[in-house]
TrEMBL record:
Protein name per UniProt: Regulatory protein
Superkingdom as given in the UniProt entry: Bacteria
Provenance organism: Streptomyces abyssalis
Family matches, as Gene3D superfamilies: 3.30.420.40, Winged helix-like DNA-binding domain superfamily/Winged helix DNA-binding domain
Pfam families xrefs: ROK
Signal peptide: none
Family per similarity comment: Belongs to the ROK (NagC/XylR) family.
């Protein structure tokens, strides 16, 4: 084989990953867009798209078409293959877990929730998670090429240990990634080419939510994206800078839940008082509304139900909404002053608060921050259902995005 022919093959293979990521994130809906984004010839883009199609990762419309109102030569439409491979994504939270199969494009194919008390031994809940995922895979008949896990704790790299699982009974430093990988092996869940079983990935749930929103949701196009949210217990935050998660030196960056918003407030797990973590999460809301949490449903579901059904009729619920909005706004204002993001996305209960009285929340941020007074910091609700699950899937998909041919065919 001549050097020229070899170099052409190498260039073609090196373009597969960037091309797949462009289709995966929706930035190349046509072959013309792929050509422009990659900066290659039309012939090269066509060959790359055909190779990705042969791997079962994307589809190429055989009949070119132009979008309504556009001019120029029609181009073949590209899309992720709706029947292509999937990854197993899982999330553990204070009230249980959720497992899902997720395809390219952040599309959830199937999901299975599990509720209950999370045991002190992470192997127990992660075994249940993988068992649920194995059932989903068996029902779907789809090929699995990886597995990702979202947990309510910073996860140290490269060790894959949970540094601060404050809202779970797990010990500090629990080796969650290794435990997850062992459970995958015991369930014989397949992975990429060359793997006997899938290797597990693990990361903090709000970091993964931010990654998902940036690639597939309300954060698309943001250069400096701040994501803050509260799910079942506690408050988390994440920052995406120039398209990459900022996790700090040991995975503890953006622990926004431990910003003080009420110095005389509730004691926090971190040793301080009045942190966002304990002043704006679902438990704080339920208590502020004068209700008992109750074991029937999760705290998040209880909070959202109260707001949807009783905000307009119960003064206690309305006051609780206003109180949490004011506390959240103070915390966000401090973050705006420090980080100067170009977009803020709120998830979980915080999203519900924003949708209930966004005018009040934006006013608090504007009145309490330097940058907020300019009105140039959009505050948006998260747009993805189960965004931490989608983010966990992104972890598992990354090796495929880096080298599609090697990951699928070896």
């Amino acid at each position: 084989m001549t050097p020229t022919r070899t170099s052409k093959l190498e260039r073609g293979r090196s373009a597969l990953g960037p091309a797949l990521e462009l289709v995966h994130t929706g930035r190349a809906p046509t072959r013309a867009a792929l050509t422009a984004e990659l900066g290659v010839t039309r012939a090269t883009a066509g060959a790359v798209a055909a190779e990705l199609e042969s791997l079962g990762l994307i589809t190429v419309d055989s009949r070119p078409g132009a979008a309504s109102g556009t001019q120029g030569r029609p181009s073949h439409r590209l899309a992720v293959n709706p029947r292509g491979p999937v990854v197993l994504a899982a999330q553990v939270h204070a009230d249980g877990f959720r497992a899902a199969l997720v395809g390219l494009g952040g599309r959830i194919v199937a999901t299975a929730p599990g509720c209950g008390t999370v045991a002190a031994d992470p192997a127990q809940i992660l075994g249940e998670v993988v068992e649920a995922g194995a059932g989903l895979l068996e029902s779907s008949g789809r090929r699995c090429v990886g597995a990702g896990l979202a947990v309510p704790s910073a996860v140290a790299e490269p060790e894959g240990t949970a540094i601060n699982p404050l809202h779970l009974a797990w010990e500090v430093g629990a080796p969650v990634r290794d435990i997850f990988t062992r459970a995958l092996a015991e369930a014989r869940i397949g992975g990429r080419a060359g793997e006997t079983t899938a290797s597990g990935c693990a990361a903090n749930d709000i970091n993964l939510a931010a990654l998902a929103e940036h690639r597939h949701g309300a954060g698309r196009g943001a250069e400096h994206l701040l994501v803050v949210g509260t799910g079942h217990r506690g408050v988390g935050g994440a920052l995406v800078l120039d398209g990459r998660l900022h996790t700090g030196s040991s995975g503890l960056a953006l622990e926004v839940g431990h910003l003080t918003v009420d110095p005389g407030g509730r004691p926090c797990h971190c040793g301080s008082r009045g942190c966002l973590d304990v002043e704006t999460d679902p438990l704080a809301f339920v208590e502020a509304a004068g209700r008992e949490p109750g074991p029937e449903v999760s705290l998040l579901e209880r909070s959202q139900e109260l707001i949807s059904t009783e905000y307009g009729s119960d003064p206690a619920v309305r006051t609780a909404v206003e109180t949490l909005i004011d506390r959240l706004g103070l915390g966000l204002a401090g973050l705006v002053n420090i980080l100067n993001p170009d977009r803020i996305i709120l998830g979980g209960l915080h999203r519900t608060l924003l949708e209930t009285d966004g005018e009040r929340l934006r006013a608090v941020i504007a009145d309490s921050s330097l940058w907020g007074r300019s009105g140039s910091v959009p505050v948006l609700p998260s747009s993805l259902a189960h965004n931490s699950l989608v983010g966990a899937a992104e972890l598992a998909w990354q090796p495929v995005l880096d080298d599609p041919l090697g990951a699928l065919n070896g």
